[in-house]
Amino acid sequence: MMDRCKSIIVSLVLLLALRANGVDYYSSYYGTKLSNDDVDTYTKNGTLANCTNAVEKCDASESRRIDGTCNNLAHPFRGATRTPYFRLLEADYNRTSDTVFDPRVSACTGNALVGARDVRRTLLVDGRVDDDKLTISATHYAVFFASDITSSQDTINFVSWRPYCCKPEGANDPQCAPNPVPADDYVLRFTDIVCLNMTRPLTFQTSGCLASNTTPLRIVDATPMFDLSPIYGNVLESARRTFTNGTLRTEIVDGAVFPPTTGVNVALSETFVGTILFWRFHNHIAQKLFEVNPCWTDDEIFVAAREINIACGSQILYYELMATIMGAHNLIADEVLLNSSESYGFRDIYDETEVPRMSMEFPAVLRWMHKLQAGLLNFYDANGVYLNETFPMVNVNSNSAFLKKEGRMAYVTQGCFRQPSGRVNDHAVDSDLLNFGLGRYQRANDILTNDLAKTRHFGMPSYIHYRSYCFGDKISSFNQLKGIISNEGIEALKSKYSCVEDIDLLAGVWMEELMDNAFVPPTFYCIVKEQLLHNVKSDRHWYERADRPNAFSEAELGEIRKITASRMLCDVGDSVTEIQPRAFELPGEGNEIVSCDVIPNIDYTKWADSRCTPYSSSTQAN
Questions:
Q1: Which of 148, 173, 218, 420 has the fewest C-beta atoms under 10 angstroms from its C-beta?
Q2: Averaged over 231-242, what is the pLDDT?
Q3: Could you say which DSSP state residue 367 is in?
Q4: pLDDT score at 3
């Protein structure tokens, strides 16, 4: 009781300070502006932090805000943390009462669906098989960009807050949703592990923002835009900055530069490669801007460096990573990308009626890429020689410090563009991901079982309904999956699903044949493509726009177009002096390892400010 009283008192103090500064409050779910009485009610019942967002008065001429507010001037809150997801299709739950939203049951028998672990072990088997085209950097960057628009709250919930869901006390916690381990499980049957700890997703309902009889909708403490939140945060955190020459704080370990581990909310988990590289790249950009514009203030350099860094991230995500795995020609045809042979300058498809937000299905199908993750990080020296040493990827979550010492980050960085990813066109997944996905944090964890189970708890309809949504397919029997899924895949699905209407979205996507001239299945492509295009249309600060606050000049945008993952690795990767031009693809004929001097570089003099005098080593921006 005392803690609750303290919390309310702190909220009241903060509330009075914010009101004094002209800050308005908005409902996180509805997006409507709240009256003072509304805010007082939220404060008194202890839901102000989860269910509302404070928004300072918008200025149409300002740059992208750290917290994502004011992206859409008509809806100032949309684009901030806790912006509600939307659903491509109506939710499908098993409703036994007004307040019960259990996973759907079989459409043909009415029985519970086969357990997620049982389905997963039938469709995806343990195995380490290398791909012959993609490198591990493709999954490193994909995981990082996914972390930009999602949060780790749900994982923290069952790892730290509710580690007991497989124990007797878990039976009395409605948030617990463990995954049973089949008695004949070919790995865990030799242990005393009979279930895998997991919880239901955190929602607006569990956070006290909506009534428990309303359809659950996930709540996420991340902005829905690709704005490098893992680097800059989603609230103002002065501890991230040095306030000198526009740079971010760093720490040096054995001569290598890393994000700080104290005083800042930065986690080096499985996203460590992207986090380290983009953190370093900000400071690389800031240094270049300072050299060109020594008269700029710290704030001017920081804001410009952040804008360039975010733009470079989006350029790599859209025009390199997604172009590689989804097929550039496909994305050009669907207007997600510009056609470089016709025009590579500005484009503006911004639509203020499009609300910046994510679909529920987008991060769910992105998890298909877990199939591609390698379980081991191979160590290579600067000459590309494999050092016969590895580090389990699952251990990064609990032992990232290991990678910081004795030059190991340099070895892993070399592996980024030399080590193959897991094989794309098969149904084998690294055993560590399927059995020990959280390393030391849990004795057993199956990441892909969790992925499948979460789609059920999110209320996602059957796979066949998404085939209808995407392609107009009217599938009513397993035989109608022929040409979409291999005969072996269809038989595997039939062994675990009573009828075709029961197939889970992710299970269907796992088993689909890949698209021609792409590395992804068609339903993955459909859902991801829609979200990528929606982001361009709904982001007022999208880097390709000419008509946005502090827009790049045509010459500056032309320099942004030069950035690639290879260039970034050359600029800030440990001991990288040579690399193939296309880092997401293995080196080989047409993609040979070359000197970094050959990889196109950004010319930062395009940002030269005529107000500044020529560079002087004694000049500092403060």
A1: 173
A2: 89
A3: G
A4: 42
CA–CA dist 245, 241 (Å, integer): 10
d(CA 79, CA 73): 10
With contact defined as beta carbons under 8 Å apart, do 325 and 145 qualify? no
Residue closest to 410 by CA, chosen among 439, 377, 432: 377
pLDDT tens across 162-207, in order? 989 999 999 999 999 999 999 999 899 989 999 999 999 999 999 9
According to the model, what pLDDT value does residue 343 have?
A: 62
pLDDT digits (tens, 9 = 90+) for 372-398: 999 899 999 999 999 999 988 888 776
What's the rounded Cα separation, in Å, for the pair 157 and 161?
A: 5
3-state secondary structure of 86: strand
Buried b (16+ CB within 10 A) or exposed e, 316-343: bbbbbbbbbbbbbebbbeeebbbeeeee
DSSP state of 158: I
Report how many domains make up the chain: 1
Task: Tell me the pairing of strands 102-103 and 93-94.
Answer: antiparallel
Q: Of 27, 82, 93, give the one whose Cα is nearest residue 202.
A: 82
Distance of CA 443 to the CA centre of its chain: 25
User: Does a structural domain hold residue 564?
Assistant: no
Q: Are strands 179-180 and 376-380 parallel, antiparallel or unpaired?
A: unpaired
Per the structure, the complete domain to which residue 48 belongs is given by 1-57
Dist CA 373 CA 371 (whole Å): 6
Any domain includes 218:
no
- CB burial class (10 A; 0-12, 13-18, 19+) of residue 491? exposed
How far is residue 587's CA from residue 417's CA, in Å, rounded to a whole number? Answer: 8
Q: Enter the tokens of residue 186.
A: 């070919």
Q: 1-60 pLDDT, tens per residue? A: 444 444 444 444 444 444 445 799 999 999 999 999 999 999 999 999 999 999 999 999
Asked if 198 contacts 453 with a C-beta cutoff of 8 angstroms, the reply is yes
Q: Which helix (H) or strand (E) holds 379?
A: strand 376-380
- φ, ψ of residue 531 in degrees (nearest 5): -70, -40
Residue 14 lies inside a defined structural domain of this protein: yes
d(CA 64, CA 103): 39
